[in-house]
Amino acid sequence: MSGTPVIGVLALQGDVREHVAALAAAGAQAVPVRRTRELDAVDGLVIPGGESTTMSRLADVFELREPIDKRIAGGMPVYGSCAGMIMLATEVLDGRPDQRGFDGISMTVRRNAFGRQVDSFEAPVTITGIAGEPFHAVFIRAPWVERVGEGVEVLGQVTDGPSAGRIVAVRQGNLLATSFHPELTGDVRLHRYFVDLVRAAA
Ligand code: GLN
């Protein structure tokens, strides 16, 4: 693709505005997505942080579940942060029994995993494929990844403290997920990485 990619932010719930701003700063045209016809118009999709149980319910209310699964099957790039990571996981531990994600990344995530130790915290995280300083990663009632399936690449892990070794960034093909919220810190390198991925996929 030579022009500006159009990237949607799933706008059912969560920190939509922050992702729209970060995507714009990273060179994309960012639009909120709440309807099927809005989904049809995007080259890629971001699933924001927020509350995965609520997002799961609203995905059904807005009849977006099947259309999003279809776009994922068709190769549309998707990036999920925090609750968005949970929505992209094929298996969720400590979830609500009725919550359901999209047909996303072959991985098991544990909801509110760090929360047993602290509700929110910050830590430096290096992401494979992104040059420069480690990310100043902000975790808010964040999930971690307990198991990755075949074809899932681990891009980042916590390096220090009681959670050292925990997987917090993964990629499977055109699907990308982080436990933390780069949209909150003004560091748009991850969004730029995703914009590049969308460009390459188009
Ligand atoms: N704990 C939330 C959930 O289960 C995620 C928190 C977040 O996105 N900051 O969806």
Question: Can you offer a commentary on this structure?
Answer:
With 202 residues, the protein is an alpha/beta fold. The protein has a single domain, classed as Class I glutamine amidotransferase (GATase) domain (Rossmann fold), CATH 3.40.50. The protein contains six helices and twelve strands. The chain has helices at residues 16-25, 36-40, 52-61, 65-73, 83-87, 189-201, and strands at residues 6-10, 29-33, 44-47, 78-81, 89-93, 105-110, 120-125, 135-140, 144-148, 153-157, 167-172, 175-178. The protein has a seven-stranded mixed β-sheet with strand order 2-1-3-4-12-11-10. The protein starts with 5 loop residues before the first strand and ends with a helix. The structure holds glutamine (GLN). Glutamine binds at residues 49-52, 82-83, 86, 111-112, 140-141.
The SSE string, one letter per element, is: EHEHEHHEHEEEEEEEEH
| Global structural class | alpha/beta
Give the CATH class.
Answer: Alpha Beta
The largest pleated sheet is described as: 7 strands, mixed
**CATH architectural designation:** 3-Layer(aba) Sandwich
Overall shape: it is globular
CATH topology: Rossmann fold
Tally the beta strands. Answer: 12
Mean of the pLDDT scores?
96
Strand order of the largest sheet: 2-1-3-4-12-11-10
The percent of residues in helical segments reads 25-40%
Bound molecules: glutamine
The H-level CATH homologous superfamily, spelled out, is Class I glutamine amidotransferase (GATase) domain
Number of domains: 1
Radius of gyration: 15 Å
Please indicate the percent range of residues in DSSP E strands (runs of 2 or more).
25-35%
Number of helices: 6
Terminus-to-terminus distance:
6 Å
Low-confidence stretches: none
Organism: Micromonospora avicenniae
Catalytic activity: aldehydo-D-ribose 5-phosphate + D-glyceraldehyde 3-phosphate + L-glutamine = pyridoxal 5'-phosphate + L-glutamate + phosphate + 3 H2O + H(+); L-glutamine + H2O = L-glutamate + NH4(+)
EC number: 4.3.3.6, 3.5.1.2
GO biological process, one term: pyridoxine metabolic process
